[in-house]
Amino acid sequence: MVDFSQRNIDYKDSVGCLLFDARQKNCLDLEVVAEKINISVSYLKALENNKYSDLPGKVYAINFLKKYADFLGFNGSEMMSKFEQESDIFYNTSLSKKSKSLSDKFEITPKKIKLFTILIIILAVVTYLIFLIYQTLSSPELIINYPSQEMILIDPNVTFYGTTDVGAEVKINGSEVFVNDDGKFEHQIYLVPGLNEISVAAKKKHSPENLIIHKIMYLKN
Asked: Is the pLDDT of residue 168 over 50?
């Protein structure tokens, strides 16, 4: 608990001591005073002991002190002036301690830097693992560059050109197709007269299949 005796202010010269001495000279109990001026005993004790940290705030402290000082017959302006000097020390000290506490809390130390570095590394590793899992379990990209969907041809021989993810397996109408190191593939299909539905599927080892049904119309001459 913070009080003015801890701030090298002589209690005998303080507001609290003046209040206490005046009450004692008038043979008044705190309970009696509290009832008459409608301020709790705990707040009156805080004023007499200069323990403003026990009060709900400076505005309340000023209001309590004015009522208490008036009740004991003090000169209000002189008492308030003295209180302002002493309370400024207390409240400024409290703010200084809070600021120091915050600065200590956010102080950068080698230990905190080390901990932060470890957390960054862990986050990077976890992110990379999630990316690998996503890449492994997600369907591979599959693009048919040629022929276009629902194309009409007059030649029964057509070569499919496409791209997929590197490492993916591609099958056209159930037949496995070679995929080069860039993920590109090509495969020739022989069309039958009429509408042809060509299935093109891409799949990684542990992923679902990405299937495209390509429709091509072959018009026989």
From this structure: yes
